Amino acid sequence: MFGQHGMVSGRHASISSSPSGEWQVTDLGSTNGTKVNGTFIEPNIPVIIHVGDIISFANLDFQVTP
Fold first, then answer.
1. Which of 13, 40, 50, 52 is the most buried (most CB within 10 A)?
2. How far apart are CA 31 and CA 29, in angstroms?
3. In total, how many domains does the chain have?
4. Residue 53: domain span
5. What's the rounded Cα separation, in Å, for the pair 40 and 35?
């Protein structure tokens, strides 16, 4: 998904639909971590994301859009 970026691993995080139908991001135990709105999330614990949130995979930032 991210090509070759030294700080993002091949299995860094996942984005999926939660049981309630909301979108969620889960860090998969990455070395450099995943942030939602500037706050590191705990590995293997899904976090609900919303339109406008910023998700950071190591040194790459993405904004959630509709």
1. 13
2. 7
3. 1
4. 13-63
5. 4
